[in-house]
Amino acid sequence: MQYVLDTLGNLIHQTAFFNLTYGNYIMIAVACVFLFLAIKKGYEPLLLVPIAFGMLLVNMYPNIMLSVEEAENGVGGLLHYFYLLDEWSILPSLIFMGVGAMTDFSPLIANPISFLLGAAAQFGIYIAYFLAIFLGFSDKSAAAISIIGGADGPTSIFLAGKLGQTDLMGPIAVAAYTYMSLVPIIQPPIMKLFTTEKERKIKMQQLRPVSKLERILFPIIITIVVVLILPDTAPLVGMLMLGNLFRECGVVKQLTETASNALMYIVVILLGTSVGASTSAEAFINMATIKIVVLGIVAFACGTAAGVLIGKVLCWATKGKINPLIGSAGVSAVPMAARVSQKVGSEADPTNFLLMHAMGPNVAGVIGTAVAAGTFMAIFR
Known about the structure:
Helix content is 72%, strand content 0%. The chain is mostly helical.
């Protein structure tokens, strides 16, 4: 009888209830909120569902992120191996290849002025950098945190790994992906604050047709120019442009389909769950995380505002040919930010169609964020 009681007692004490802290319960609640936003509200479910589930798992079973060195049997936890692919910058680079294969760069080629709007939206990154320094973060930590302002999760993870800020990678990645998914909530009030009803109703001329030769040459030329200037951007810009070259050259259909579908979704699963699993209560619930979350929203808001304001300048310079709303798409949340520009524009005038025009700054923002990351790496590595 005593043996049975001892066995039952051991089984009960093996349950998670005896090992969870208040912090774990808080993180479990946060994970459930993220799942609600993803499933019920539809906020970037491809990102938030795996992130939230990884967060749920690690706060009930911490050993799922146990490293090989910490494990008694020499075998690490499942998600630890996924997370190593983040630290080694493999998954972020593969995400960029998938984005390139899925995205039409024609709006940017047809309207090169979009590069200015994409560059303007990176203003939030540099604001966040100096604010992070002011709040006591080191140069490298501040640089890794500031990339959140570009609303680019893969680049945030990439830079944090390259600068050796793996202890901050979880909060940085979660903040970046959360703000990416909340673009439809965060951006519209800022866009409306800095534009007039008349500006929001501006209809832009149809973009010129882009030849196949232009679409093929664009990723090659951008790679040569950017990587020659900032070699450290090669993993991100190179993979982004390789994916787009797959799409545009027309001779590797199988590679295009793989990069934009099967491979892309596999990488999203691995990246999302491992990012979520990096948010154990011990690593996430602290003052540094709160600062990162606040800096992220400030950076994102400043980037959105800067894009819209430069859009207003271009609107004035072109005598009303450019709708300032497309400037907000300069953050690199592709294609969500472009859709938000379309949504706000159509609210002012249901016949207004800005989506393709906004895709130009949106693509430019992806390149701009990678360039900003490369600049930080060149300075601090």
